[in-house]
Write a structure and sequence with these properties.
This protein has about 110 residues and is mainly beta. Helix content is about 15%, strand content about 45%.
């Protein structure tokens, strides 16, 4: 498991994984290696998204930092540390890239 921010964590998910589920104490998924169980640190979490291709703007906005201005909301570019993304999915991609995270990840947010 990789910690993305103080309250957001990510678990690497194989490309062939199916039925990714968040439980109270773990993430489970099924893949060619069988059923995989990844334990979580103590706490309560919400599963934000499961793959890089299935993230929505709303999911990404719940993860990345933002600055709200009277007429616009800008999201953080984690590579430059500037708030210059107009869409949260771009900011999320920059966060994952800044940590050299490629492929699919289950992203969880501590409640």
């Amino acid at each position: 498991m990789t910690q993305l921010t103080a309250i957001v964590f990510a678990v690497k998910i194989p490309e062939d994984a199916t039925d990714v589920q968040g439980h109270v104490d773990c993430i489970t998924y099924y893949c060619s290696e069988g059923t995989i169980r990844v334990p979580l640190p103590p706490g309560s979490y919400t599963l934000q998204f499961c793959t890089k291709d299935k993230v929505t703007e709303e999911m990404a906005a719940n993860i990345v930092e933002k600055r709200e201005y009277p007429l616009i909301v800008l999201y953080k570019n984690y590579r430059t540390n500037e708030f210059d993304f107009m869409m949260p999915t771009g900011a999320l991609k920059s966060l994952l890239r800044s940590l050299n995270m490629e492929g699919n990840w289950a992203v969880l947010k501590r409640k």
